[in-house]
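Fresh eyes needed here. I'd like your take on this protein's tokenised backbone:
***
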Amino acid sequence: MQSAAALSTHPIASHATGDVIADILDLGRDAPDLAIVFATSAFSGASEDILRAIDVLLNPTKVLFVSSSGVIGAGSEVYGTAALSLWVFWSETLEDDVVVIPLDEGLLGVDYLSTRQLASAQTVVVLADPAAPMVTQTIESLCELRTNRVLSGGLLSGSNGAPSIRDSTGRSFHCVAVAFQLTAAEAVIAFGSAPIAGPMTITSSTGAMVRELDEESALEVAYEVLKNGGIEDRNSAAQSLALAVLAPETMTVIDVHEVLGADKASGALAVAASLPEGTIVAFHRKDSPAAAFAVNEALAGGRSSGALLFTCSLIDPNADNEGVSDLGPVTESLGTASYAGVHVSAVIGTGSTGPGLSAAPLSAVIFGRRHH
């Protein structure tokens, strides 16, 4: 497959639409199989005109308009101001690879064929309005249907207006799934933290109190980590300390839980989750520099053909609250600038309890990545 991305921050919708369409037309490619235009809330009212222009000039097989509080595209991130980010996709198959499936009525409102497509598709991306009725249950049902398969996306975030999802026919959706039937992708999550020590195994715990790590007092281990971890500001590190849960076979991070405090009498650490004995963990640090590191580490790998990103916060921690920030490190990690995405209130991904809505700040689906 191939993809391309274009971004415009022109404050007039017609000009911004023309900018991103022109960038795609300049590639000289055939009509794409899918076009998704991500818009900040400033352009929500112009969705019909934007979709019509894309439909006429690019003639994509499928097209969606998605508005939220911030957008990502072509190496940049925009928050709090007008912007359009266009992502287009060309499949390598001769069949109808992309299927757009409305989920406003949950899985119970989906016919048999669509249910099969959702279950068997190589890759599924879900976008939804968090205010929609039963949206959490819908996503939970979809995660159960797609156990051990690629699933990504998020609940959109609104700014100066409710988020919206539309297609070129004028239909609006509260929840929609984009199913790539034959195009495989890699789904990753960034937990906004960087490792400082580990791995190690929980050898004694009671609920959310971790008593021993590798048969030593968990509190004493934490002291040693802060003392010997090459950390300049130990007080700051102690305030942002967390335990990451690691997958036993791959040692990849599948969840991160904050360390809330400690019981000096028992030498136990209080963690924001119940972690049973035998869980493999590592000490992590959660702060702005660590968040940037975590994003780049999660996205790093061989050159990709493109990606879709969904983030709960600004990817660039040094960015202003409003305006445009450069995502050069993300471009380097992905090996391409053909990525786009949107700001969300919660991401969809896989954690220690399985797939579902995650507390991680970023979820991504990466296309064309042969290894990681």
